[in-house]
Amino acid sequence: MAETEKPDLKEQVALLPLSPGVYQFVDRSGTIIYVGKAKSLRKRVSSYFVQSKEHSAKVRVLVKQIVEIRHIVVGSETDALLLENSLIKSLQPRYNILLKDDKTYPWIVVRRERFPRVQSTRILTRDGSQYFGPYGSVMMQRSVLDFIREVIPLRTCKLNLAPELIARDKYTVCLQYHLGNCKAPCVGRQSEEEYAQLVGMVVSVLKGDLRPVRQYLEGEMARAAGELKFELAQRYKQRLDALDNYAGRSVIVSAKIVDVDVFSLLPDDDVAWCNFVRIRHGSVVGVQTVKLSTGVGGDERDMLTLAIQHIVENIAGGELSREVIVPLLPSTTLLFEGVTFTVPKRGEKLELLEFSRKSARIYRAEQLKNLEIKNPERYTERLMNAVQKELRLDRQPRHIECFDNSNLQGAHPVASCVVFRDGKPSRKEYRHFNIKTVTGADDYASMREVVFRRYTRLMAEGAEMPDLIIADGGKGQMGVIHEVLERLGLDIPIAGLAKDDRHRTAELLCGFPPVLVGIRPTSPLFHFLAHIQEEVHRFAVSFHRQKRSKAFIHSELEQIEGVGDKTVQTLLRHFRTVEKVRAANIEELSALVGAAKAKKIRAFFEK
């Protein structure tokens, strides 16, 4: 695996996205010492490094120990909360306890008593009770408790339910019984065995397994319906709906997927980024992306096999879950005895795979951005080498120009040329062109005119010619550019970027006659070329809009009888907009264009 030099903390913070997610602070020993959630990762993490009197002594001590910042992007604040909770429970970072306002985390306890109660607590005692947690926030803990109380009818009272007290009829049923939230073991209407079955369901829920409670609710609903107790059956149906809502609200905590490992692969030209997600008891407990060299011949199945093997040996503690979710089957499964590989097509497993893919994409983008910030020359060198290699050029294309046309049903045809130097837009060199020799919508003729005008002028000025010309189009546009260059006696490589039906970059062509170049849509080269295409299209369309807008203004004023082009120019030069011309009084207009025309203008706008 290729190691990437870690940037300093300031750079690490600058690279964080503004998305919701979970951040982890790591000390010099590589230990995660704090886990937190954020609505905006960059804003939240940067607040730790701002000098403030509001920071407690413990926070200041924490910050001094941070040498690395890791993070995981998720889709919402709720997912961030759930993932934070899962990671805190699995990692137990010491500062998460120390910084919690000197309080311990909330836990859920199943009491060791007859007819056990399920409660919230911050105090752990060795009394034989079962404790689940800790939870990263009271909100998260309460949401779990509220769900349990909504679907599983257990007692909440403090009564001493000793057998002799129940036998003496010491108690009477309370409101919770009448509401259907308790089955009244206090008066002997529920046996210990039946109550223990419900407690077992609670324990399963707290471990991430909702299957027992689902089976119970479905059975009770069917029994109630069979006995024609439709109101009771409807109550169980509502509890099943609550169960489905709880199970389906987040990819971070799953009721159906209990223990799995997830791998996704993002191949680039000479490396691959592999993301690993570990899920235990229905919760994500680890997410990590590694960068691997692709010295295996470029086959994705081979890359995935080696990536899984590397992660198992170096990150996953030498073991895999019995089920592993992957985007495609590894080239061999003999290395992973007892493991079932699943390639999902739909449902929660596909959502988990997409979560893993998104994590890999974000990590790759951050690493490339980090390389660009820390060593822009090296980043540019790699990018230019990739363009030269894929397009089979004699030298690096440090100076690239790209052309695009824009018109609306042949009206107001324009074209644009954008210039990139060393992989970056050189906006001061961008040029607009009004099409002069073409009538109607003829993209090829418009391209022929613009390319001829552009390079005729550069030749006359003795200016530098580009290393590469890109046409925003396919073979036809490339052929037109080739024809013009031959006419001018210029030998400049040509590439073409063809779009699909949704106007997205679909394929890269080069040479003459043009040949298709296969590059991965995930590669930095593909994104660079797509960026050029988007930039020239944006520049051309904005100019065309501007021209249409000006044409509309002129056409409206030219509808006024007796007002010609010169008068229109005079009015717009003075008033700037048609609205201000419309608002002008007769005296202002008379002083500018004379009394006769002023009357006609006022009459036009007052109609």
From TrEMBL:
Q: Does Ion transport count among this protein's keywords?
A: no
Annotated GO molecular function terms are: DNA binding; excinuclease ABC activity
Query: Per UniProt, what is the name of the gene that codes for the protein in this document?
Result: uvrC
Domain GIY-YIG, residue spans:
18-97
Q: What does this protein do?
A: The UvrABC repair system catalyzes the recognition and processing of DNA lesions. UvrC both incises the 5' and 3' sides of the lesion. The N-terminal half is responsible for the 3' incision and the C-terminal half is responsible for the 5' incision.
Superkingdom: Bacteria
Family listed: Belongs to the UvrC family.
The family database entries (PROSITE patterns) matched by this protein are listed as: GIY_YIG (PS50164), UVRC (PS50165)
> Which InterPro entries does its entry note?
GIY-YIG_endonuc (IPR000305), GIY-YIG_endonuc_sf (IPR035901), GIY-YIG_UvrC_Cho (IPR047296), RuvA_2-like (IPR010994), UVR_dom_sf (IPR036876), UvrABC_protein_C (IPR050066), UvrC (IPR004791), UvrC_RNase_H_dom (IPR001162)
Q: Name one GO cellular component term.
A: excinuclease repair complex
Residues that span the membrane, as ranges: none
What protein name does the entry list? Answer: UvrABC system protein C
Q: Which terms are listed as keywords in the entry?
A: Cytoplasm, DNA damage, DNA excision, DNA repair, Excision nuclease, SOS response
GO biological process, any: nucleotide-excision repair
Please tell me where this protein is predominantly located.
Answer: cytoplasm
The subcellular location is:
Cytoplasm
